Give the backbone structure.
Amino acid sequence: MVKSQRLENVTISPGKPPVFHVLSTGAWKCAALVVPIFESSKQRFSSDDLPEDVAAAIGKAVELHGFEGKVGTLMQASGIGPAERLILLGMGKPEKINTDQIRWAGSLLARHLRKIKINSATFHAAGLERANWPILAGAFAEGYSLGDFSFTAYKTEKKSPPPLEDPGKSKPLTLSIICPDQNSAKTVQSVLAEKSVIAAATNLARTVACHPGNVLTPSTLTGIARNIAAANKLKFLVIDAATAQKMGMGGLCAVGAGSASPPALLILEYLPRGIKSNAGKTVAVVGKAVTFDTGGISIKPAADMGNMKYDKCGGMAVLGIMQAAAQLQLPHRVVGLIPTAENTLDAQAYRPGDILHMYNGKTVEVTNTDAEGRLILADAIAYACEKYKPGALIEMSTLTGGVVIALGSVFAGLMAGDDGLAAQLIAAGNSTGERLWRLPLDQAYRKLLDSPHADMVNSGAREAHPIQGGMFLQEFVADGVPWAHLDIAGVAHPKKDDRWWIGDHASGFGVRLVVEYLQRLGS
Ligand code: BES
Ligand code: MN
Ligand code: ZN
C-alpha cells in the first residue's frame, strides 16, 4: 500500500545557538556597536564608560534620526571610528524597564543582524542599571537567542543539505556584552551560560513543533525523543501501543486507533547525580503530543485545520524542559511524560458513543472524538502518579479552543488543584514573560461531565470548556498529588506577532516557565 510520505528518521538540528562574550572594557573595533536608547526626555542614553568622542557621536546620531527609544524599534546609523556601524536600540521608558522589554530588544537585534547579514555585534550595557546587570544581560541574551530562531527545513532554495535537515544558519551569531565592572562580568558570564541553555532548549521545542503531521508522527517523534534523551544522558522508556493496550490505557489507545502510526507514551527521566530515585522531590511534567488533530470522526472544519500540527506543543515543551534539566544539572528528579497519538480516522477509529476503560479504572463515554487530548493525558497522568509518586505534577496541553477565546495569545489558562503550586507557577511565568491566568477548578463544574452511561463524558455542553478540560484531567490525578494544568492552546503558536520573537512559528511556551519553576524549587 502506498502511504503518504512518512519518513522514519527526521533529523532535528535547531541551528547553532549564539555565542556570548563578556568584556569589561570597550572594544570599539566591531561590526556593530549597539547602544541602548531610552524613551526619556531627560537622558536618552548613558555616556558612562564611553569615550567622549563615541558618546558625542551617539548623541549626534540620536538627534539626527530623531530616534525616540521606543521598545520594539531600532535604528542603524553610520559607524563611529573603528565600529563599522552604530545600532541604536530602543529600550522603552527607563522607569518601566522590565525583563520582557529587554528580551524584546534582544530579539529585535538578532533579527536585524540576520537581515543585514552580519553575525556579530557589541552591546554596550552602559545605561542599564548596574545593580541588575546580570539579570538584564541574561534577559537580553535570552531574547537574542529566541529572536534568532528560524525554521527553514522545507525551503528548497538553499538546495543542500537535504530538505529534512534544518539547514540552520551557516554561522552562529555572536554577541559581546561590555560590562565595565570586573565583579559583575563574572556573574554576567554565568547567567549568560545558563540562559543560553534555556533558550536553546526552547528553540529545540520550537523546531520539533514546526515539523508537519506527514513527517512528525508518533513513531518519528519516538525516534526524536530517544535521540534527545541519549544526547542528554536521560533515561528513556517507550510504552508502545501493544503494551499500552495490555496495561489498560484505553484513552491513549482509542485516540490513536485510526492512525497508521500507532500511539505511544514516551518517558524521559532526569535523575541528578548521586540522588536515589525515591529520595527527595520528583516533579512530573506531562505534555500533550497529538501530532495532528483532525478531530477524528467528530471532524473539524477545514479552515485553519493545518494549524493542528501544533497540537503537539505541550509535549514538545516537555522535550525542551528535559534537555534543560539535564544540561543545567538541576537538583531534583524530573520525569517527562509525553503521550503521543495522531487523532485521525479510518475504519478502526474510535467513535462517539464509545465507552473507554481508562488506566486508573474509570470509564469515559466519548461524546466528541475531538476532545482527544484529555483522553491521552488522563492515562499519562494516572500512570505518572502511580509509578513516580511525584511531589508535583505539571501538565501542559493545547487543550481547548475555549481558552483561545477567553485569553487570546497573551495568557495561558492555569487550572490547579493546589494553591501553592499555582502561585509558584504564576510567579515563574511572570519572571519569564509566559504569563498564566488562573481559572477555577471547582467541584460545582463537575456535573458538566456527568454521563448516563459511564463515570463521565469526555466533553459536556458548551459552557466552561477550558474548565471542563481541567475537571476531566483532575479525575486522573491521584489523591494528594499537587497538580496543575496549563492550557496553552492560545499561546503555543500565536499568529504572526511583531511585538515579540515568535513570528509565524511555535513559541516554545512552557519551557522557560517550567525550568524557572524548577530552578526556584532550590535543592
Ligand atoms: N487541539 C484542540 C484544541 C485547540 C483548538 C488548540 C484551537 C488550538 C487551537 C482540541 O483537541 C480540541 O479539538 N478541542 C475542542 C474540544 C471540544 C470538541 C470539546 C475544542 O476546544 O473546540
Ligand atoms: Mn481535538
Ligand atoms: Zn487536540
